[in-house]
Amino acid sequence: MATKEKGAQGGKSASPGGKGGKSGAAAGGKGAKPAGGASKSQKGAENSRRNAEKAARGPHTGAALAAIAPRLKRYYTETVRDRLMQQFSLTNVHEIPTLEKIVLNCGVGEAIKTPKVLDSVCEEMELISGQKPIRRKAKKSIANYGLREGQEIGAQVTLRGARMWEFLDRFVTISIPRIRDFRGLGTRAFDGRGNYSLGVKEQMIFPEINYDMVEAVHGMDITFVTSSTKDDQALALLRELGMPFKGESPNIPPLT
Asked: How confident is the model over 12-28, as pLDDT tens digits?
């Protein structure tokens, strides 16, 4: 009898301990929440401190000044527009052809077997254009090439606005003179709707590319999209902007 009473007392005594263990665990679990809350409050305090420092510094010295227009765009507005208007006898200023966008496209066939090649191509195109490219995917599968639908096999960049004018300025004045055995651009690469396309065999003609960092030589296609629907007007526009065509002396825009 004594053993039963002791066992019963031991079992009863164990239950408070179990409750105590549960309560302790619960208390410990509840106690862990304030630590997380403290970390969030610390992050909020850091953000508020940074915002206060920015407000104390105030705007930079050139915040009130207007952004300077690209050099080639100012040359187009001040000189090229009047020349084109007189050359084609245009009466409406909206009929004057202008450059709308520049599209850089690079197809990477090696990306089918080695997808990492596309990463380096995207990095180089970002350096060249100053804008992050988008990766183009295959529209359909081709069994002979091992290509699957949706696989990334190229990169593309569309430049507009100031970046477009800056790229054209660097391309005409720096990149084209660095092409080997260059004899001028062809005049038959228009599509009949005022757009001009050309191919570049090496990306190393661009000054942004470092020779020591190049893993593989690749080219790209560059398309100049104009607002004109006539090839002769688009040709005159690109000629005035400094594009060197075959058999013609290039029109070099002033450096100022």
From this structure: 444 444 444 444 444 44
Question: Measuring CA to CA, which residue among 98, 157, 150 is closest to residue 126?
Answer: 157
3-state percent breakdown (helix, strand, coil) of the chain, nearest 5:
50, 15, 35
76 and 53 in a common domain: no
Domain containing 10 equals 1-65
Tokens 């690469």: give the residue.
189
Contact 193, 229 (CB under 8 A): yes
Note the pLDDT tens digit of each residue in 155-187.
999 999 999 999 999 999 999 999 999 999 999
CA distance 168 to 164: 6
- CA-wise closest residue to 133 among 210, 73, 215, 203: 203
Residue (of 191, 168, 175, 176) closest to 240 by Cα position? 168
Strands of the sheet with 99-107, listed across from one edge: 134-137, 152-159, 99-107, 220-226, 195-200
Tokens linked to 92:
């409406």
Question: Which residues have C-beta within 8 Å of that of residue 118, sequence separation ≥ 6?
Answer: 108, 111, 135, 152, 153, 154, 155
Which residue, 65, 89, 107, sits at the end of a domain? Answer: 65
Per-residue b/e over 163-175, b at no fewer than 16 CB within 10 Å?
bbbbbbbbbbeeb
CA atoms within 13 A on the CB side of 233: 21
Task: Mark the ranges of the chain whose per-residue pLDDT is less than 70.
Answer: 1-38, 60-63, 256
What's the farthest any 2 CA atoms get from each other in the chain? 123
